[in-house]
Amino acid sequence: MGLELRHLRVIRAIADRGSLSGAARELGMTQPSVTQSLAQAERCVGGLLFQRGARGAEPTALGSVVIEHGRAVLDTVYRMAAAGDRFRKDAWPSVVRIGCAPGLLVAQLSVAVPQVGGADVQIAIAAGTSGHLRALAEGRAEAALLTHFHPPDAGPGPAAPDEGAGAGLRGVLRGVVVAVEPLFAALSWGHPLASRQEVLLADLAEEPWCVPPGPDDLGAHLIAAGRAAGRPLALNVADGASALSLVREQRAVLPVMPGIREVPGVVVRPLLGEPLAMTTMLYWRSDGPLPEAWIHGLWERLVRAQREIVEEAPTYRAWLAAHPQWRTTPPTPAAVHRPRV
After folding, report:
1. Which one of 46, 147, 186, 287 has the largest count of C-beta atoms within 10 Å of its C-beta?
2. Diameter of the chain by CA atoms?
3. Per-residue pLDDT tens digits for 232-283
4. Each residue of 134-149: pLDDT tens digit?
C-alpha cells in the first residue's frame, strides 16, 4: 500500500496542530484512527514522521520532507477539484471580488485565492464592516475579510454577520473566525512607559488615542474598555500616517495589531490583561457562487498565514510565548472562537 491522500491529510493536521489529539479534533476523527493512519503512513515511507514527547508531536527530518511535499500535493489536488467546479457551475466567477478592512492578512489573499480555486482576485480595502457586508449582500462582492473589536472573551457577537446588511439577510450571510488577537499600544520611543514590557490601559488614560476615520467599532471598543478600567479615554481621528506622526511626537497613543512590524521612532507594547481585542472573520453568502468547501480551503490558508507570517513579528511572538493559554486561531472553521483555553 502506498501513501494516500487521507494519510497526507492526517500528516498535515498533526503538523499544523502539534499533536495527534489536535489533529483528531480538526479532522473529526478519533485519536486511535489518527494513530493508525500515521502508523500506516510511516510504514509506507519507511521511517518515523514525528517524535512524540512532552512538547507534542514534532516532525523528524524525514517528516519535514514528507510534510512539505504533502502540502504541495494536497494544494494541487484541491486546486484541481476547485477548477473542476468552475466548469460544472455556470455561476462560478472568473474574478473573486473580496472586500477587506485594513489588516495584516489582506496581502495574503492575492496568493491564497488563486491557490484555492485558480481564480483571479479583486480586493477592495476600506475601513469598517457595514459597507463590505452590504456589498456582499447585494452581490457586488463574493466574500469579505473583516475585523470586529470586542472584549477578548466575548467573541464577535452573534449578530456580526448581519451588521449593517439589512434585516432580510439573516441566515444568508455566513462567517467563520480566522483569528482572535489582542490589540497592543504604539508609543513614542521617548514615552515614559516605553521601557515597560506590558502597560496598563489605565496608565494611558490621559493620552489621546487615535482611531481611523470612517465607520468602525474600534472607537466604541476603546471607550468601553476605558470605562471598564475606570479611566475614560479621549479619542482623536487621524489617518494612519498622521497617527504615527503624532505617536512619534509623543502626542498620541495608537491601538495597533500585534503583528505590526517595527516602525522608526515607535515601540509597540502589549496591554496588561488584554483589555482590547479583535476578531478577523471571513464572510460569504450561503446562496452565492462560492461553495462552502472553497471557503474552507481559503480559511485554511489564511489561518496558516496567521501562524506562519503574522505571529512571527518579534513582539507578538514573545507575547504569545508568555501567554500559552491564548489560542488565536480555532481548530476548525467556526462562527465564534474564544481565545483562552
Report:
1. 147
2. 68
3. 888 888 887 888 899 999 999 999 999 998 889 999 999 999 999 999 999 9
4. 888 888 999 999 999 9
- Tell me the C-alpha distance between 246 and 337, whole Å: 34
**CA 233 – CA 1 distance, rounded (Å):** 64
DSSP 325-336: TB--S-SS--S-
Q: Which is it for the CA torsion 61, 63, 64, 70, positive or negative?
A: positive
| Cβ–Cβ < 8 Å for 144, 100 | yes
Rg (CA), the chain: 22
Domain co-membership, 165 together with 311: yes
* 283 and 170 within one domain: yes
The answer to whether the Cα torsion of 302, 254, 249, 200 is positive or negative is negative
- Contact criterion met (CB below 8 Å) for 294 and 89: no
Let me know the angle formed at the C-alpha of 188 by 182 and 191, rounded to the nearest 5 degrees.
Answer: 100
Q: Indicate whether 43 and 122 sit together in one domain.
A: no
Last residue of a domain, one of 250, 269, 288: 269
Partner residues linked to 23 by β-bridges: none
Mark whether 77 and 14 lie in a shared domain: yes
- Long-range contacts of residues 170-173, Cβ cutoff 8 Å, at least 24 apart: 171/286, 172/137, 172/285, 172/286, 172/287, 173/133, 173/136, 173/137, 173/283, 173/284, 173/285, 173/286
DSSP-assigned letters across all residues of 180-205:
EEE-EEEEETT-TTTT-SSB-GGGGT
| Cα angle 108, 218, 311; round to 5 | 35
Cell numbers given for 99:
472586500
Helix, strand, coil shares of the chain as percentages rounded to 5?
Answer: 40, 20, 35
